[in-house]
Amino acid sequence: MTVLTWFVLAFAGVNPLSDSGPQIAIRASQPQVGKYEKLELSIETGRRYENPFDPQEVDLTVRLSSPSGKTMVLPAFFCQDYERRKMNQGRTRENWFYPLGGGAWKARFAPMETGGYSAVALLKDKIGTAQSSSIRFECTASKSKGFLTAGRSDPRFFEFSEGQPFFVIGQNLAYISGGQYVNLTKAEEIFAKLSENGANFLRIWTCCKDWAMAIEARKSAWGRSWGGKLPIVPIPGGDDADSPRKCVKLEGGDGASINVEPCHPVPMCPQKRYVLSGRFMADGPSGLRMQLSHGSPPPIFAAAPDGKWTQFRHEFVAGENDYWLGRLAFSLTGSGKVWLDNLSLKEIDGAAELLWEADVNRPERGYYNQVDCFILDKVIEAAEPNGIYLMLCLITRDLYMDSLSKVDSDEYRRAVQDAQNFMRYAVARWGYSTGVGAWEYFNEMDPGKPTDKFYDEVGKYLEDIDFYKHLRTTSTWHPSAKDCRHGRIDIGQLHHYMRTETKEDFKDEVAVIIEKTRFLREHAPNKPVLIGEFGLATPKWGQSEYMKQDKEMAHFNTSLWASAFAGGSGTAMFWWWDQLDRQDAYGRYRPLALFLKGVSFSGLDPIKAALTDGDARILGYQGPDRAYFWLSDPKAAWWNLVVEKLEPAETKPAAIEIRGLNPGDYSVEWWDTRAAAVVRTDRISLAAGTFRATVPAFKRDIACKVKRQ
Questions:
Q1: Residues 98-123: pLDDT tens digits?
Q2: 492, 496, 495, 498: which is closest to 520 by C-alpha?
Q3: Right CATH number for 3-140 from 3.90.1150.10, 2.60.40.10, 2.60.40.1930, 3.40.50.2000?
Q4: How far apart are CA 277 and CA 311, in angstroms?
Q5: What is the pLDDT of residues 218-257, one digit of tens each?
Q6: What is the maximal distance between C-alpha atoms in the chain?
Q7: Architecture of the domain whose range is 610-708
Q8: How far apart are CA 288 and CA 309, in angstroms?
């Protein structure tokens, strides 16, 4: 090796002296990065792996040295990059995602100290180990507040790494997909509307099976999870194998057909040449006909005799306006059975597989589909500049629930291992983002499952690899006291719907929120708590027609204010995001957001107050020199307003007494909860004893800030 070659390799991040395993190189996207901001590292390994998502097959990490001398090990990840275009499809705006290249290794890092860093890539695989040369980059100061965490002085509430308080104001936006009400483009528009009105938090699902974004899930070109049994069978002659390969079976009379219908529409580039290939075996039919929307009519592929496999290949050129594959189907020529295997669609000289959903041997657990990973990249990138923090519901419950039935079983241990691998990928790809407010393991896991050990082991693993210390939470289909109490669950959470025509209380949203928050605080007294799903529902959990009838969104407005003052760490997060969007309900966040601007509940206690006249409910907080509270008329419950059509009369002015405030001069601001305006300001001097103020006449509700000057 010449001296010049040595210096060229070392400058590129390649270790020129590595003699075991492949040579690797690491490069930074920029020489400087702001504190808490993203630095992307590209890593070249010179190798391809059968399953790049399995750390047992390939373990690629980046060892970082911080300015203070700390050493951190950051997991790297394999990803497929895409080009994105926003396409107008009639009334909808579809997103076109086209793969670029054949995939790459990356690491993403957000430095938490200013100063100089060094980084080295480390590779371990079946061949051996390798290490790159060291690279350096600089972290400079930024305006970022950092990551969300539990409060250091008061863990009941959220705060940022830099110490500023954070109170959740938000909702669900669970399903993001081209086939849903909200696609990626629509989500970006909603983020902007939420931000304009002061909302700051969203619960996003990445576990939707095949109807929306799902990182780890069966997404099949051969049918849907709600459509019954898929035509997938063991490959002929492989029944005796320990893990027999699978294929697709088509049988019936002459002309019987099967459609290839991936969940994600298959993208194409106009005027590019493609090859569609595979193999089939026939028992009876004389051939297999391919039906394709593009190019000249494909030939009928003649079957091989004696049950042998026939390879087929069809080349075609996409038309000048063809951005999607369109219809693809296979049909029989003659009666009988055909087994179809290895179906593939690629550019003629391309590396990226476009028909990845046709692979019936792709594992459901341990494979992370790259289209949805890319969509989540863009969701996070859109949330960050809008000040929206995301609670990512990550793991597809139904892939794990049965395996978590018996502690210490092989199935349980495998589920823990698979979940750890999945969380490793999540930390590697999205952990850098301050916009990721929390990892949520499951949506509504069975609360009867023995999940304590799962959360303990996966949680401990995260403590080892996620040096950003993202908060962790989970949810169950009934409130779970054990999950709220769990030492490695950082956010207590429950879901509740006011279901009409049931025995439970549903007519008074304030009473419901008080009761559900009481449960959370009883079992999670020293951690943040959230009502993660909320809303009006039918007895069978569908969307209630009453929600559509509530043109003023009275139940929504009241629930926001009640949940903000009932003792939780944020507002109740409504589920019916499509209806909220149709009714343009985002303006309802604005008054509460303005009221809470500059307000922190940290260190405060539940308010000790009473009215001398009237029956308005009082919810709020107080300290020795301040109080924040909300009064509501019980007659203004949603049922009375929406169903009974009974508008309560204006309350008369009444006196309120607050115990425990220190003597001094106080300002008292009374707020209209719908107009986002101060309706009256009082100045009150307290020499000693009980603080007294006069509540203005109000309809439905009113809010108040009391602060010593």
A1: 999 999 999 999 999 999 999 999 99
A2: 492
A3: 2.60.40.1930
A4: 8
A5: 999 999 999 889 999 999 987 656 678 999 999 999 999 9
A6: 102
A7: Sandwich (2.60)
A8: 12
